[in-house]
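FORM 7B: Structural annotation worksheet

SECTION A. Query
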Amino acid sequence: MTDKPDQAAPVGLIALLSACNFVIGMGAFVVIGMVPLLASGLETTTAAAGGAMTAYALSYAVLSPLLVSLTGQVGRRRVLAAGMAIFALSALMSAMATNLTTLYVARAMAAAGAGIVTPVGAAVVAALAPPTAQGKSIAAFYFGLTLSQVIGVPAGGWIAFTFGWRAAFWIVMALAVMATCLIWVRVPAGLRFKPVSLSDLAQTLTDGFIMGAVLFTASFLAAIYVLFTYLAPLLEHTMGYGRNGITLVLFVYGAGAVAGNLLGGVLTDRLGSVRSLVLLCLANICLMPVFSGLPLAPWVLLLLVFCWSAMGWSFVAPQQVRLMGLAPTVTGVVFALNAAAIYIGTAAGSALGGFVQTVSDITWLGAVAGACSLGALLHILASHRAANLRDGRA
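SECTION B. Predicted structure
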């Protein structure tokens, strides 16, 4: 996939790229903690402000595969630095936005930058890591994205409530500028990546069995983002939470994400990928409707958020293992499409959550999210059945 360079990996390179993923994660999801502030500052509704997340997600899903393919023959250091610079510029535009249109354009630019940095960064890590440590190295790379949920997103929300939402974007811009400079200094020159062929992509897109499995990612995450995108205004409306309360809940959500990453691997090894995914769907069907019963005692709410986050973030490992088993010869293509499906699900869930608020009350989000999780459960069962029929195991 990537040519191994003769030189050894520079000290701290993986840590640097993981830190870049942290900045990407913070900049991408910081909107979650400031939806009420964006709505107030731009004089719009919370549903429209939450649409900034939808704009990011849709743009990532469309632009990432295209940009990674178009830049496949360019040196990895230049591509990574350019992607991070675009991300920094998008944060600057977001900080200076005076209307919703400008903010949406800025979020689309952020998705373009992130859609380059994260997949290309993973390829660089895989290229420079010893063959016996590639798995651990890639896991370390993605740890930055998980850590952003624990520290970056809550910190961004706290900054937004304390100093204004524009300040949070200024912080993201500063971090992205530093990351751009460090990439140019620390990433070796001359790394090349063999892009996925269009014929492989076309063949996979027309394989209904594989695409049915890939699109389960979208249906699973859409259910989560119906609720998660609007968690801050929901807590403000039902629990009376402001800066400190919302920040605490987001921190607990991030801690659940870390636990979920570990739990997903354990579940997959012990139960298998399909059983694990079915279990996670059932957990979300039970957990998410409880949010429609807010207010709850604060400690109950925190426990609920932790468990919900852990179930959601446990999804990554079993889904990737399942896709590898279904398409072992085109794993790279399938993983690229799976990344796009993540943001399709994010966009669809965010859009549906906004629609729920326009036709009903915000307290219905949990119930609707639970119903969507039921749809995801039916999806995985149908997809698994179809795969068994194809392989003659019905």
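SECTION C. Observations
The longest helix spans residues 134-163. The radius of gyration is 20 Å.

SECTION D. Sign-off
Analyst initials: ____
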